[in-house]
Design brief:
Layout: E1 3-12, H1 16-26, E2 29-33, E3 37-41, E4 47-51, E5 67-75, H2 78-89, E6 95-96, E7 102-105, E8 111-116, E9 130-131, E10 134-135, E11 152-159, H3 165-175, E12 179-184, E13 188-192, E14 202-205, E15 212-219, H4 223-235, E16 240-247, E17 253-258, E18 264-269, E19 281-283, E20 290-293, H5 298-304
Parallel strand pairs: 1-4, 5-8, 11-14, 12-19, 15-18
Antiparallel strand pairs: 1-5, 2-3, 3-4, 6-7, 7-8, 9-10, 11-15, 12-13, 13-14, 16-17, 16-20, 17-18
Bound molecules: fe (ii) ion.
Length: 306
């Protein structure tokens, strides 16, 4: 089948203490910490590497300041891994590191790794919901979650240059087996990894016409986790980048935060799942960003004393 999921990501950063505080508050689990770097894990065993002194084999950073340096993709079998490495190796330099990761560089300058996927099983407990005719929760009052613990990194969004965008996309679709799900001509291409069910595993966005990290999304079990996780981050002093809403493409509920490692992170829940019967949709104009976003006039009322 091929690529299943994001296996790990590496950021080069300046302030390790600040980044560790951020991802600890965000709900990832610290598994390693030295003076120079830290490693966090999601509940399904994907790793986030924060490095003040990144590996010399990584390509140069694509932008100034802290940023994403590499995304390593997890592949289901040794045979598929070999096949992908051979395909990429035909016209790209590929280096293998001691930990069994094959490293190369995409057409925009982001590091790309390939390795065997090592998914960790985790028990997912989505909250049972009640509605007329569909009662799933009897005699049980809800408790606050107080914070969120991401199940997995579910998608990565990278900004790419307008010029050469077809080649940038072709690296993932032609060589790595990603399938475009929604092509938004003025904005970018949403694509799905062959072993993933999510409507998109990756977005290459050319709208800002500037190469850099846009965001990485982390799936949480439900809406409450998106809201309470975001509230917890705000209480801890982090800055919200986009308030609660539901995307048009992918239908996921979202909340975004500015991340000190570069770009933003997204709490995401309830994304569309699509299989091979979902045909690529091509949009000549950009659809609305969201189906809905949180609106309030409560603050105005407070300001006028109403
Ligand atoms: Fe997203």
């Amino acid at each position: 089948m091929g690529i299943q999921r994001i296996e790990s990501v590496t950021y080069s950063i300046a302030d390790l203490d600040e980044c560790v505080r951020f991802f600890d508050d965000f709900g990832l689990f610290l598994v390693e910490r030295t003076e120079e770097h830290a490693v966090f894990e999601t509940l399904t065993g994907q790793t986030l590497h924060l490095d003040t002194d990144p590996h010399p084999l990584l390509p140069p950073p694509v932008e100034d300041g802290p940023t994403l340096r590499e995304v390593v993709w997890g592949v289901d079998t040794r045979e598929e891994l070999r096949r992908l490495v051979d395909a990429v190796g035909r016209d790209h330099v590929v280096r293998e590191s001691a930990d069994g990761v094959f490293h190369t560089v995409d057409r925009s300058g982001f590091g790309v790794g390939l390795t065997l996927a090592r998914p960790k099983k985790t028990a997912v407990e989505a909250r049972p919901a009640n509605t007329l005719g569909g009662v799933n929760r009897w005699n049980t009052a809800l408790e606050p979650l107080t914070r969120a613990y991401p199940l997995r990194m579910c998608h990565v969004a990278l900004n790419i240059a307008k010029e050469g965008r077809e080649e940038a996309v072709a690296f993932y679709t032609g060589l790595l087996g990603f399938r475009p799900t929604d092509v938004v001509e003025p904005m970018g291409v949403f694509m799905q990894a062959p072993g993933d069910d999510d409507q998109h595993t990756m977005l290459l966005c050319h709208r800002p016409d500037r190469v850099g990290v846009n965001h990485i999304a982390y799936e949480v079990p439900g809406f409450d986790d998106v809201i309470e996780g975001g509230n917890h981050m705000i209480e801890r002093g982090w800055r919200e980048a986009r308030k609660l809403g539901r995307h048009t493409i992918g239908s996921n509920v979202f909340r975004f935060l500015h991340a000190p490692c570069g770009g933003r992170v997204e709490y995401a829940a309830d994304m569309d799942r699509v299989d091979d019967t979902y045909e690529t949709r091509v949009h000549e104009t950009t659809p609305p960003h969201h189906i809905w976003a949180l609106r309030t006039n409560r603050d105005q009322d407070a300001a006028t004393g109403a």
